[in-house]
TrEMBL record:
This is Carbonic anhydrase or acetyltransferase, isoleucine patch superfamily. SUPFAM superfamilies: Trimeric LpxA-like enzymes (SSF51161).
């Protein structure tokens, strides 16, 4: 289904194929010969999403832009099943495997691979032709790669990236952080109440 959101409607190249159960909402531009499979959600939450040519967005993948972090996906990218891309820039010829997570402000260089269930964290920069192994976490600029069992080292790097401050504008030490976060984010998401279906 296609939705107008915040006054913007998706623009889809006539050669693109969008599954009937996919959702595309707001300021989204989809290039030639793109395939968006069943259950995928591509939603521009105040910032634009641009998807190049010959991109495949597989089943139940999520691509989300925010007002501060648009999404750009270059040509010949595969976004695997249940992968998530939030406010990131993905260069051309990148493979995002099943279950990968790419967070706000991240940049992935061309011909990189983010393998099954791997994570590219907030504001992390992967140079061209990088590989994030299965289940590993890339953090920082330049990216450092960690296996998941090295949580303390991941946290030491990740803490400086300030996820709640960068994404939600909130100080991590706020006593009622989750109260403020859910109320603020809920108000922003409530703008979908005015969405208009286009099909």
């Amino acid at each position: 289904m296609l939705f107008e959101h915040l006054g913007a409607s998706p623009r889809i190249h006539p050669s693109a194929v969008i599954a009937p159960s996919a959702v595309i909402s707001g300021d989204v531009t989809i290039g030639a010969d793109v395939q968006v499979l069943h259950g995928a959600v591509i939603t521009a939450e105040g910032g634009p999403i641009t998807i190049g040519d010959d991109v495949i967005v597989m089943e139940n993948a999520l691509i989300r832009a925010s007002a501060t972090d648009p999404v750009h996906i270059g040509d010949h990218v595969l976004v695997g099943p249940m992968a998530s891309v939030s406010g990131a820039t993905i260069d051309r010829e990148v493979f995002l495997a099943t279950g990968t997570r790419v967070f706000n402000g991240a940049r992935i260089g061309e011909r990189s691979e983010v393998r099954i269930n791997a994570v590219v964290h907030l504001r992390t920069v992967l140079p061209a032709e990088s590989v994030v192994p299965i289940g590993w976490i890339a953090v920082g600029d330049p990216a450092q790669l960690y296996p998941p069992e090295r949580h303390d080292e991941i946290w030491a790097t990740q803490q400086e990236l300030d996820f709640p401050g960068y994404v939600f504008g909130l100080d991590r030490d706020t006593p009622d952080l989750m109260v403020q976060l859910t109320e603020r984010y809920g108000r922003a998401l409530s703008r979908h109440a005015d969405d208009r279906p286009l099909d």
